[in-house]
């Protein structure tokens, strides 16, 4: 039996990830992985929808009606939000534009894919973060008598200290961490932008204790990932999410945490909110977090209720005064009008 030749779609997918995204577009590894996850989900859905194996899919299966069905599947079956749905669509748009230049004979169906609009909805979800007491209770729930407990405590403390994205911390090697003064870590963010972030003396002690207990494999010690799993491999974002949920569920944590939908990125929000409460200016916070635009940092000013109360008390102090009782006159001859004016 002769081997089956790769389809046009298979060859296009390979060029998309090996040549177009890293070479022509210069996208970071994190963005490429995000696009990869989208294509994996779409190809699995398309194979099920077309009743064939993934390796038999071809360019004809990349059609607008199937993409629309895939987006519906994301929302209704996978329960993804609008932001995730639009991010998946953006990746498919990029792939469709690449196919337009590669296979102009399929231009019409690909243009139909590109015409699928992004869905409007809530622009910003509420920012969930740890209050100071909640963060202390969460860290106290980690058992530091074991090697894994020391690793987990150092991991979450470093995330809170730096406000870094989870993948930025997981990509750290020992060579990226300076424990001598001035103590700092070298983070590589979106667009391969490099920034240096200072770390507190307490965080330095936690990292030293973790590194001393970390198992060393053959090779250059400075190239070893800072945080590894039990088998010595790199810790993943899914592993960090699992650890966060386990510690939140298994301990007598602050009651207010149970009403929140917390995830690893919430630690980044926590750092931003606490820096803002401490009086740090927006430009410094933006540089600290590695934001490409100051507008991204400004969302935290709208997220914290305490800051809103303080601003309201300073600008409109009389608005917080109790209402004067006994001076409301009800004219029953025009009850609806009185209710509107009330």
String of helices and strands? HHHHHHHHEEEHHHHHHH
Structural class: mainly alpha
Going across the biggest sheet, name each strand in turn. 1-2-3
Total domain modules: 2
Cα Rg: 26 Å
Unreliable stretches: 319-328
CATH architecture name of the largest domain: Orthogonal Bundle
Largest sheet: 3 strands, antiparallel
Instruction: State the total count of DSSP E strands.
Output: 3
- According to CATH, the fold-level topology of the largest domain is hpI Integrase, Chain A
| CATH superfamily (homologous) name of the largest domain | Intergrase catalytic core
Summarize the structure.
By secondary structure, this protein is mainly alpha-helical.
Provide structural commentary.
This protein is mostly helical. It folds into two domains: 8-114; 132-307, hpI Integrase, Chain A. The protein is built from 15 helices and three strands. It has a three-stranded antiparallel sheet with strand order 1-2-3, with no helix packed on it.
What attributes does this structure have?
hpI Integrase, Chain A; 342 residues; 3-stranded antiparallel beta sheet; 15 helices; mainly alpha; globular
Secondary-structure map with pairings?
Layout: H1 8-24, H2 29-50, H3 64-76, H4 82-102, H5 107-114, H6 132-140, H7 147-162, H8 166-170, E1 177-178, E2 184-188, E3 194-198, H9 201-213, H10 237-250, H11 265-277, H12 282-289, H13 294-298, H14 305-315, H15 335-341
Antiparallel strand pairs: 1-2, 2-3
Helix pairs in contact: 1-4, 3-4, 4-5, 7-9, 7-11
